[in-house]
Structures are given as C-alpha cells and as structure tokens.
Amino acid sequence: MSAYWAERAWLGADTGVVTGVVVEVDADRFGAITPGVARPPAGAVRLAGLTLPGLANAHSHAFHRALRGRTHAGKGTFWTWRERMYDLAGRLDPDALHAVARATFAEMALAGVTCVGEFHYLHHGPGGVRYAEPNETGYRLVAAAAEAGIRITLLDTVFLASTVDGAPLEGPQLRFGDGDLDGWAGRLAGLRLPAHARAGAAAHSVRAVPADALADLAEWAGLSGPAEGPPVHVHLSEQRAENDACLKRYGRTPTQVLDEAGLTGPRVTAVHATHLTDDDRTALGDSDTRVCLCPTTERDLADGIGPARALADAGSALCVGSDSHAVIDLFEEARAVELDERLRDEHRGHFDASELLDAATAAGHAALGWPDAGVIAPGARADLVTVRLDSVRTAGFDESAPLPAVVFAATAADVTHVVVDGRVVVRDGRHLLVEDVPRALADSIAAAWARS
Ligand SMILES: [Zn+2]
To answer: Which residues lie across from 233 on neighbouring strands?
Structure first.
C-alpha cells in the first residue's frame, strides 16, 4: 500500500476539482480516495499542481513518429504525405520498429499517456514475407510499451486491398496484408499477451477492406452479441476522395457500408469521421459507435474538421489520439476539439474543459477496452498524471477553476509525475525507465531512415 497527497485532483465531471486529496494505492488499483485533507499525511508522496486520471492516446501508429518535421517541404495532400509514410514503412525491420516505438511510447509517458491504442498494420517482412513468428512486429510493439511503462491495446489491423475496388496490395502494402480475413484471424489466434496489453481488432478503412470482409470481421468480433469483447477500430472518411470512391463502388457512404456490415456499436471506434453526411452522424450516434478525433494530425494532413459537437449530440462518445504524431500532446488534441469548432462556426463554448478531459481519459480508455481506467476512484486502475500549475504556461491560473488553465493552456511539457497501474513511470518530468528519451528518439529515427 502506498499513498499520495494531491494538492488538487480532478475527480471527474460530476465532482470536479477538489483540494488536499489523499489517494491510496494497493498494488495496481486505487484504494480509498479522501479529499479535504489539509496536509500530506506521514509517508504520502506530495503531488503539487493538478492531478488527473491517466490519459489514453486512442489512436497511434508508433512508427509515424519518424516522419515528424520531415513532411513539410513543398505542397501536397494526404496522398503525397502517404508516399513518404510508405517509404518509411518499407525500411523498417522488427528491431528498427521496436526502437522507434519504445522511444515514441516513452515520449507519450512523459506527456501523461498511460495507455496507447496502437493501430498496427506493419505485420510482415518486405514483399509480404512472413517472419518465423507470425506476430513478430506486434510482439515488438507490446514489448516497447512495457519498456516505456505504459499499457497498450494492440489493434491488429485487417488490410486486404489497395483500393476500394479491391485492387491487390502493391509495394510496401504487401507487408500489411494477410491475404484474407481467415489469414488475419489465424495469425491473431496465436497471439499471447502479457498483463499490460490487450488485443483488439481494426479494419484499416473501406479502402483497404471490402464490404464482405467487413461483415466477416463484425461477426468475428461478435459485435451483434454481448457488450463484452474486443474493441474494433476503423479509419472512417478522413478524406473526401475515400467518400467519392466508396460512393462510386457501393453507392453508399463509408459509414453506410460499415453500418450495413454490422461494423458499428459501442465496441466500435470510428477514427477521424471527418467528412460525414447528417445520416452518417445519426447512424453512428444511434448505434453508440465511438469516434476518435485526431485534430493535430487532421490539420497537419489538411484532412478537414470533424463535426465533433454534432457527433457527440447524436450519441457518439468522443476520444482523442495523436495518430501520426505530428506532435504528442493530448491537451493539444483535447482543446483542438473545441477550438476547431470555434474556427468553423465563429462561436465559443461547444465543449467545456471537463468534457474535453473526459475524452482524453475515461472515454479513451473505454474505447481501448480498459473501462476500469481513466478515473480516480476506488477500485480503478491506479493511473495518475500530475500537471504543474507554476510553469510559464499555467502560472496565474484561477484558483477557483484550475481545469481550464490545464485543458486550454498546458502542454505535455507541464506533466511532472505519471503513475501507471500503481508504478511510478515519470518523476519530476524525468522518465524512470528510458534514461534519455530525446536521445532514444534521435538514434532510433536516424537508424530507421538509414536503412534501405
Ligand atoms: Zn491512423
């Protein structure tokens, strides 16, 4: 049993921020949570600033971190960016992927991320040649998360075609494919994961998975059955070109194709959901399908602005992810959900700070299949993230309402302490498991690009 004394802690949207909170931790779970204690009890670790539940990064492709700052020359679109990403994907072997992922997950831990949803499609060797261990790269990602001290949901991704018309995979895409859904499911059946990891499934998109295979995936996941089961994620309508091709092929929007395939529901998370019709939003909301917004990637790739408020009003729970890791900062992702709406309709106040923080904590963990995380409450997983309130960004905050200062002005650099499943991973802004995170990033990224 250990104990913390948080100067201030956010105990969820209903309770809000309370002061002098004693947080007891028993192994990997919270024990009693006692607010209103004026001074740290003997033996309790003092957490200055504002302490939050663990942040969930609900959408990640770890190796994309190696693209940061390297895709901004000249003009272009999502599709020209994708050429650069494929160039990188073609170079990585398991060791290089492992090293980049370890450093990237360590960067996430420093930013307060306690769980990542890794949308994983780089399965096989060059040309699609299988590794001796068919889940080699998945295991490397799981190991990388352990080394960085965070939990992972490995969203193993079905990727079968290069276009919505079902054209075969080519070039670097050959590494992503398992031939058909049975091939994918057979490989996944051999996956054995340790306690910090969970398996989920993903369909890359309607571009990469034909409608009949989407229906087979929905059946594999038991989406028409009980609420329990693996989470299923899918990229949805990130680009107008995807919608146009899908309408041409099926006479349906991508959302309609997913809905008719049964690939909707509370265990399903649609990633991006940027370009939707009114009927699409209704279908997602009515089926309780979740939506993961990735605003820093969506602006980086000139994707567009997702209809966040309308989706939430329709019934979709929102979460956030850093996706391509143009930056890794969940405060920036969360506030962008509100600030992008302001740019679109010239009004303020679509989401308050606690709604945005819920997306980055409890809702994100639920979307990744960890419903017992993302809250500071007895019995929940003992994740804590402490944000300083005396930095140049946060100093001068309103004592009566500190949450907006954090959600609208703090950055990942303001995170001082991170506890994951009861274990201290970051102390005083320093990662305790990866000694020099910037060096790990620099070395692993240089090594990845040096490969041919
Ligand atoms: Zn993505």
So the answer is: 202, 269
Active-site annotation holds for 323: yes
In the chain the first and final C-alpha atoms are separated, in Å, by 50
Distance 30 CA to ligand 1 centre (A): 32
User: What's the one-letter identity of residue 171?
Assistant: G
Cβ atoms of 263 and 211 within 8 Å: the answer is: no
Q: What stretches of 240-289 show up as alpha helix (H) in DSSP?
A: 240-250, 254-261, 278-286
What's the 60 CA to ligand 1 centre distance in angstroms?
6
Centre of ligand 1 from the C-alpha of residue 366, in Å: 18
Q: In this predicted structure, what is the pLDDT of residue 74?
A: 86
Q: Compute the radius of gyration of the chain from its Cα atoms.
A: 21
Q: Which two tokens stand for residue 295?
A: 């605003």
Residue-level pLDDT at 311 = 98
Residue of 272, 325, 417, 431 with catalytic role: 272
User: What is the per-residue pLDDT across 148-172, written as a single tens digit (0 to 9) for each?
Assistant: 999 999 999 999 999 999 999 999 9
139 has pLDDT over 90: yes
CA distances to 24, 236, 392 from 241, rounded to whole Å, are: 51, 12, 43
Instruction: Please name the helix (run of DSSP H) or strand (run of DSSP E) that holds residue 338, with its range, or none.
Output: helix 330-345
Distance 289 CA to ligand 1 centre (A): 17
The two tokens of residue 249 are 């092929």
Contacts of 336 (CB under 8 A, 6+ apart): 293, 295, 296, 299
Identify the pLDDT of residue 80. 87
- CA of 427 relative to ligand 1 center, distance in Å: 30
Instruction: Specify whether 280 is catalytic.
Output: no
Whole-angstrom Cα distance, residue 342 to residue 253?
A: 27
Decide: 308 and 316 in contact? Cβ < 8 Å.
Answer: no
* C-alpha–C-alpha distance, residues 341 and 308, integer Å: 8
Ligand 1: centre distance to CA 118 (Å): 9
Cβ(348)–Cβ(342) below 8 Å: yes
Q: How far apart are CA 274 and CA 232, in angstroms?
A: 18
Q: How much distance in Å is there from the Cα of 46 to the middle of ligand 1?
A: 38
Q: How confident is the model at residue 452 (pLDDT cuts 50, 70, 90)?
A: confident
Of residues 259, 300, 303, 323, which has the active-site annotation?
A: 323
pLDDT of residue 196: 98
Reported as a single tens digit per residue, the pLDDT across 287-305 is: 999 999 999 999 999 999 9
All residues with CB under 5 Å from ion ligand 1: 323
